[in-house]
Write a structure and sequence with these properties.
Keywords: Carbohydrate metabolism, Xylose metabolism. Transcriptional repressor of xylose-utilizing enzymes. It comes from Gemmiger gallinarum. Belongs to the ROK (NagC/XylR) family. This protein folds into three domains: 70 residues, Winged helix-like DNA-binding domain superfamily/Winged helix DNA-binding domain (Arc Repressor Mutant, subunit A, Orthogonal Bundle); 131 residues, ATPase, nucleotide binding domain (Nucleotidyltransferase, domain 5); 152 residues, ATPase, nucleotide binding domain (Nucleotidyltransferase, domain 5), CATH 3.30.420. The chain is 37% helix and 21% strand. The two termini are 22 Å apart. It has a five-stranded mixed sheet with strand order 6-5-4-7-10. It has a five-stranded mixed sheet with strand order 13-12-11-14-15. Strands 1-3-2 form a three-stranded antiparallel sheet. It is of the alpha/beta class. The chain is globular and about 80 Å long. β11 and β12 form a beta hairpin.
Length: 375
């Protein structure tokens, strides 16, 4: 079936907006060359985007001997999206513009409950965040939710989360405003989306998220794989220890990697503060060093297994990944000690580019992408 003229024009508008979001400014002739379109078509696209309030004039270009062309730039903040990372005890918010740039973040202590009182408080916090940033709801393209568990295929609800107490057939749907789209994402998937958003060099890799819970994702051809039941990447429930002395996972089973690899494993050594733990580690605190060496041993084994099994880069993210930079060489040494020469897994270890707000920001990015595809 041939594409209709309206569909072709929509695709061209999307392409034009993307070019403008990636460039500081462009003239109509420059856009025409980039998109391989006629100059009149490029001019019409600019006018249509300008009418929608997505593009504006941005001064005249230097003269090339004739009439000076007008520059245009994207109004990045004309539309925005909110990402909300929901954990057992906190809510982390991130406000992103059309270029995927984080404009503001906020962390709120808020204990999760699957009831209307929690949903009401969630709406209030979203409203307060919008008001703080002077954002009208009409400028909001949607809200993305990052959640520690399995989400439904339509991304409208959380269907299973041991850590939040959501057990099938019970579900959690974070509905807020009737006229505002929302989508739910597994928290590790959301952090992974943030990590590989608009990066051509990140097309195939395994992602390991070390936050309040351990999660992961497998990315092939730039797409996160969901698996048969939407549970691909549940690295936290890999068994790494056997016997009655193994640590208890929040799911009720012993020996899973989560209680050994979560951020809480380190934070519990420093009054519940991961930041304080790494401060003590940097200061040479002996108990912190001993705990961290044990932590790295477990992490090295998991990373080496992932690298051998997937034959891909392993990207470590989450709250712990944010702090691992000074200790990456030590981790690689441990992986090297477990590896055979044919795999060289240590060379495939990479750290995340984004920090503690990655899951919140990542959950907003698909809504931005969807908006751009429909302009």
């Amino acid at each position: 079936m041939k594409n209709s003229s309206s569909e072709i024009r929509r695709r061209n508008r999307t392409s034009a907006l993307r070019e403008l979001l990636h460039c500081e400014k462009l003239t109509k002739p420059e856009l025409a060359v980039r998109l391989k379109l006629s100059l009149p078509t490029a001019g019409q696209l600019m006018e249509e985007l300008e009418t929608q309030g997505l593009v504006r004039e941005s001064g005249l270009a230097e003269s090339a001997g004739g009439r000076r062309a007008m520059y245009y730039e994207a109004q990045k903040n004309s539309r925005l999206a909110i990402g909300a990372d929901i954990t057992r005890n906190h809510l982390r918010l991130a406000l992103l513009n059309l270029a995927g740039e984080v404009q503001d973040t906020r962390r709120i202590r808020l204990a999760f409950a699957n009831d209307e009182a929690y949903r009401q408080r969630l709406r209030q916090e979203l409203e307060a965040f919008l008001n703080k940033n002077q954002v009208m709801k009409t400028a909001l393209v949607g809200v993305g939710y990052s959640l520690p568990g399995i989400v439904s295929a339509d991304r409208q609800r959380l269907t299973l989360s041991h850590i939040l107490g959501i057990m099938e057939p019970e579900t959690f749907a974070p509905a807020h405003w009737a006229d505002c789209p929302y989508q739910c994402f597994n928290d590790a998937d959301a952090a992974c989306i943030r990590e590989c958003y608009d990066r051509e060099d990140m097309t195939d890799f395994a992602f390991l998220s070390l936050s309040d819970t351990v999660g992961g994702a497998l990315v092939l051809n730039g797409e996160i794989q969901r698996g048969l039941n939407g549970r691909c990447g549940e690295i936290g429930h890999m068994r790494v220890e056997a016997g009655p002395g193994a640590r208890m996972c929040y799911c009720g089973r012993r020996g899973h990697y989560d209680p050994y690899g979560s951020a809480e494993r380190l934070a519990e050594q420093a009054d519940g503060s991961l930041e304080l733990f790494f401060q003590r580690l940097e200061q040479g605190d002996l108990p912190a060093r001993q705990v961290f060496e044990e932590y790295l041993d477990r992490l090295a084994a998991v990373v080496q297994n992932l690298a051998v099994f997937t034959d891909m880069d392993v990207v470590i993210g989450g709250y712990v990944g944010h702090y691992l930079g000074p200790y990456l060489d030590r981790l690689r040494e441990k992986v090297d000690g477990m590896d055979s020469r044919q795999f060289a897994s240590a060379r495939h270890i990479r750290l995340c580019r984004h920090g503690v707000d990655a899951a919140a920001a990542g959950s907003a990015l698909p809504l931005i992408r969807q908006f751009i595809q429909t302009v």
